[in-house]
Amino acid sequence: MSKKIHSNPLEGMLWQALKTKLSFVLTRYPAYLFAGMLVCVVISAVWVFSARRADNNMAVFESPRPRYMLLDTLGAKLPSIAETYGALNRVLALQSEIGALIEKDSLSSSDSIALIGALDEFESLQRSMQPKNNLQ
Q: Which residues cross the membrane (predicted)?
């Protein structure tokens, strides 16, 4: 007669041993594991937002624009960005001035002149910024 072939008893023991080791590590070092997970999440988020996306319209043999060209275009746009920021600050100041004048119960002639001047300046700022908002 032939002997019975038994299944490998180490297979069940291997998973059991792995489970006990993992539970030991999880109960012994939870703070380190949590910190490690957070580090992985931060690294992943940085990678996702900083990774260069390939342009689908760009051919394989074309190289992307060099970094110095990007800096040149940014340098060319800085004055317009500063001008827009200044205009935005002026618009906010005009809005508060107009709001203060509107809150008054009665307007004197100087208040009316100031209100008309503020509204005219607001309109001129709006007209001056209009062409810059269009796509070029």
A: 29-49
Residue with tokens 């060319």: 76
Report the alpha-carbon distance of residue 89 to residue 87 in Å, rounded: 5
Q: Is the pTM above the cut of 0.85?
A: no
pLDDT in tens, 29-72: 999 999 999 999 999 988 888 876 655 555 555 555 555 555 56
Of the candidates 128, 135, 40, the residue with the CA atom closest to the CA atom of residue 87: 128
* Cβ-contact 103, 109 below 8 angstroms: no
Contact 94, 122 (CB under 8 A): yes
